[in-house]
Amino acid sequence: MTPAEPGVDDGQITRRRMLREMAGKYAAISLLFGGVYSPFSIDVIERIPTELQESLIAFMGFLMAAAIIGAFELSYLRTNLDDKVQRYLAHWTKFTLYSSIMLLTQIGVIALQIDNENLIPVLVMASAPIILALIIYDFWDAIRALDEMGRL
């Protein structure tokens, strides 16, 4: 088998391409979160009666746990990264899970701050590292998969 000519796409994923795709995924999540989720969810959550907030937060906890388990279970190590369809399905699945986690976190912060606005900084400080850790894990998982393939 001869190596591909420079600039010719041989179908194999490279580190640069994978990181570019992942950066695009997180840019899309940020746009979706800031442009669609936030304006819509803030208004809706602020109108929820106080007596329903406890049930809402409990239900969100179950959804959040499911999404986080899904985010950790879906590994790029178990994906054929050279197959564009498999790789993009993995990206889209993680996109869906991570954007849901961010939305659920925001809903929780808004629901809890309705009773006490002083909680916002504490909730953000508690939530931000978890979201950051999920994103770092996603990049680490991709780099680990590329390393297993000998692409680093």
Walkthrough of the structure:
- It is built from four helices and no strands.
- The protein has helices spanning 15-46, 50-73, 84-113, 119-148.
- The longest helix has 32 residues, at 15-46.
- The chain is elongated.
- The two termini are 20 Å apart.
Distance between the termini: 20 Å
Percent strand equals: under 5%
Q: SSE order, as H and E?
A: HHHH
Largest sheet: none
Total of helices = 4
**Structural class by secondary-structure content:** mainly alpha
User: Percent of residues in helical segments?
Assistant: over 70%
Question: Could you tell me the mean pLDDT?
Answer: 86
Give a short overview.
The protein has 152 residues and is mainly alpha-helical. Helix content is 76%, strand content 0%.
Question: How is this fold's topology laid out?
Answer:
Blueprint: H1 15-46, H2 50-73, H3 84-113, H4 119-148
Helix pairs in contact: 1-3, 1-4, 2-3, 3-4
Task: List the keywords.
152 residues; mainly alpha; single chain; 76% helix; 0% strand
